[in-house]
Amino acid sequence: MDIAGVFDHYSDSGAGAMALCILMDGSTLIVLGLNGAIASVVILTLDRYWRIVHSRHYRTYHRRWMLYVGLFLPWLDGAATYLLPAIGTTKIVNGTCHPGAFWPSLSMEKVRSLRYESLNNFYSPHTDSEQQKINKQTQQD
């Protein structure tokens, strides 16, 4: 079975095509898994810290359900912060998937762009002059 190019063109905009567009082309599954995994590691780290550093308090107040809730909530958070916006902002137009391209209001799109811009600045900080050059280049393109 050759699936090369299957996701390049969607012949209809039905529920199946939309699900493939959101999950595959929008890389929702990857981001959902990454967000959930990272948050789960943070929860486990905090649990281990509490158990080692504050062992008496841990033995007194820790319950088994706390660990289960702590492992479930990050995956719920990943779904709420990426999957739900992807469902509302993805459309198939002329047989092409456009993930995250259609926002209901201008203010929601500004919040999204500010979020990604702040993450971009955090992971690849530039000096002001370098950032101005980058902004000019993107405006010209």
Gyration radius, rounded? 21 Å
Structural class: mainly alpha
- Whole-number total of structural domains: 2
Total of helices? 6
Assembly classification = single chain
From the spread of the alpha carbons, the general shape counts as elongated
pLDDT < 50 runs, ≥5 residues: none
Instruction: Report the count of strand segments.
Output: 2
- The SSE order reads HHHHEEHH
Mean pLDDT: 76
Considering DSSP H and I runs of 4 or more, what fraction of the residues is helical? over 70%
Please summarize the sheet with the most strands: 2 strands, antiparallel
Which strand order spans the largest sheet, edge to edge or round the barrel? 1-2
Task: State which percent range the strand residues make up.
Answer: under 5%
The rounded distance between the terminal residues' Cα atoms is 39 Å
General description of the model:
The protein has 141 residues and is mainly alpha-helical. It is 72% helix and 4% strand. A hairpin with a 2-residue loop joins strand 1 and strand 2. Helix 2 crosses helix 3 and helix 2 runs antiparallel to helix 4.
List keywords for this structure.
elongated, 72% helix, 141 residues, 4% strand, two-stranded antiparallel ribbon, 2 strands, mainly alpha
